[in-house]
Amino acid sequence: MKNTEQNPKTRFTVIGAGHGGKAMAAHLALMGFPTTLYNRTQANIEFIQKRGGIELESYEGGPNGFGELVLATSDMKEALRDAEVIMVVVPSNAHQGIAQNAAPHLSDGQIVLLNPGRTLGAIEFDKTIRENGCHADVTIAEAETFLYASRSDGPSQAHIFRIKDSLPLAALPATRTQLVLDAVSPAFPQFISGENVLHTSLNNMGSIFHPALTILNAGRIESTGGDYQYYIEGATPSVSRVLEAMDRERVTVASALGIRAQTAIEWLKRAYSATGENLYEAIQNQTGYYGITAPKTLNHRYIFEDVPFSLVPIAALGQQYGVSVRCMDSIIRLACVIHRTDYWRRGRTLQKLGIQGLSVNELTHYVMEGIRPD
To answer: Which pairing describes strands 139-143 and 167-172: parallel, antiparallel, or unpaired?
Structure first.
């Protein structure tokens, strides 16, 4: 890797060797950025270590080739030692564990970007590293969603189906968002300002499209093993009306915080140019959904990740600021029954995040300026 003093390239560490982490690490390496890949489980990166990198394939005109890595390791201290930007690419239920393990090894000036943060992930990550002894001047940021549509083609192979044209991110505090954009834009010019982490969190579309669509098709998933088209056949007119009700609640929660969140229909039009008179029609008109099959089981991240780490914090914000979230609450409670667990207790509650009882002004001041009220 070339990293000359005259034109040094940002040093990246990618946390997580799933399909997304491998795709991002390979892409960064192919673009010439010195890249380290970390994964907690050593066995998952053994082939990458032996080959010295990752083979990447993608759509026509996309990045293709062998991405040579500086290092692949299961040692967090080693992974973070020389990193300037740390891209966390793991499910949101792993964010807290990553923060706990990274806290002793973070240093001044480093940037941690959650890809994505889901709902209030940056707040959780920042609070966790501080509680675990990190006193370094580290900037935590979150992306609204993930940059790639990708999959894993093997132990040291990755495939990118597409790269989003634009993707909002925000730092905590928002005064550091431009600093993060400046650091990542040479590699990823697709990132744009997402205002603040309340904006990125409340535009979390996975919270609308995943849990309810899975739970309301529970019988079909269990009887067929997911052998049907998840969106096209699963989002029937009645199911889509439930999604619309949840979406209205999400947008209303955002409004209570002074935020104009995009609706699910607006998002489908912006992301995929899919339109319709209602959400059912817009989903049916999204050609990219054709061929996507349903989860094979209800033990899936669309429930165990998206309910506690996406829906619960949105619904909790609604309850704190006087917004009716009865539809969201119904889906959360059904998930609790199906999985025999209490996601209201296990999820990202406002108490765990340290923002319970804050007024709208206090919460806004915190995410904008980084100052928690006493």
So the answer is: antiparallel
